[in-house]
Amino acid sequence: MTDLRGRLGEAVGAAFASLGMPAEFGRVSASDRPDLADFQCNGAMAAAKAGFGPPRGTAGKIAAALADNPLLSSIDVAGPGFINLRLAGPLLSERAGALVGDEKLGAVQVAAPRTVIVDYGGPNVAKEMHVGHLRASIIGESIKRLFRFLGDAVKGDAHFGDWGFQMGLLIVACADENPDLAELLEQPAWPTAGDAMLARIGLTDLDRLYPLASARAKADLGFRDRARTATAELQAGKPGYRALWAQFARITREALTRDFHALGIDFDLWRGESDVDTLIAPMVGELRDKGLLRADAGAQIIRVAREDDKRALPPLLVVSSEGSAMYGTTDLATIVDRRDSFAFDLCLYVVDQRQADHFETVFRAAILAGYATPGSLEHVGFGTMNGADGKPFKTRAGGLLKLRDLIEMVSERARERLHMAGLGTELDKVEFERTALMVGVAALKFADLINFRGTSYVFDLDRFMSFEGKTGPYLLYQAVRIKSLLRKAADEGLEAGSIRVEAAAERELVLILDS
Ligand code: ARG
Fold it and tell me: Which of 135, 252, 355 to mutate to test the pocket of ligand 1 (most atoms within 8 A of CB)?
């Protein structure tokens, strides 16, 4: 219960009690007509239903009983017996002062803190980050912070895509390009002397090799089969492949950590899909023992569809006909891992809406297997960020947008804006760059979070970057102006007094913060 609403409810309850009626009738809620009142009480109607006489009469008596109450500046009876209440101005001022002094700004803390995992971002090795990952990162980071702010124990996990076929593709492509390395990769143990060779492989190599290898695997079946074999050998633990893979994962993770950090996104955990690999075989055994696995055209599946489903849900593919673990298998094993490592109460998956069926399938399988309880797994889907053509945003060259390039793009636009507005001229180069990045990131994040998360929106940097309207830069600009006013006042020896809430917008703000 919030402070103002709670206090008011008690007073109105006491008025009902003084007339011989239950105090619960005094419950108040935010007014449907903020132009007329701050809060309303519908208790007179409830009292009439319970046999206490006509509602308007009751409402009138309550209003009379509260007439001198210092909490209120006005009390009216409307319609069939609504009691409209307006709070006394000094009370709002006092509440505003208390909110400012509270480091949680009045937000009500959870009664029993839970362990919450937020699975978000979901970047992959080699495969480029795209706009789906960007929204997942922005929304996921906010959700993580909100839960933490309210007192839950939260861990944000990037669920790093560091396993699977793309690794085999990269290993083969890298080996083909470096015969010396290829020789070492085949040795029964990884020689330390090989480390220097690994150290030469950088991100630019991955960026260059992956698209080539991925395209070639589609046209050249021999190449594809070699990549498949390499994937299987890597997963079976071949030392050379493991060493090379570790280098791919490390350089990608380092670069991504840096780029995410520039966007104010920091993960607590970077568990990879690879981390649950050893859990998969025992898990499959357990699922078999529980009688959940069905053979289907050479594959092993779990059926999750229910009679009353509105649309047909595919089964969970646990082991493919080629004997490999699939995307869903990894997600199921990750639930087992998170249960064992963190005993989570709630696990949220902040992932593109297009993966809704995938998650529904995995969640149902996890509940059937007893790995999680109903309600403890939740997919937080979202729409796409589109280009002007209404399709998921692509770069001008038609490619997917890389995180690094996006950061550069928004910083560049912010620099232009700042120059145009004649702002930041007093800053040195480093400070100016830092400011441009902050303005750019604010533009991006605000423009994303202002939308209802389920809807798609159009990526329009000019609009996001405007210094007017509902934009991140506008908010930053106002914050800076307010700070500068306060600084000037301080220079003149003025000190801030207590807060006085008078204008309608100010009242509204306090009531929102109090709700
Ligand atoms: N790496 C995945 C992708 O790029 C996203 C991972 C989302 N999280 C999960 N637990 N499946 O699509």
Answer: 355
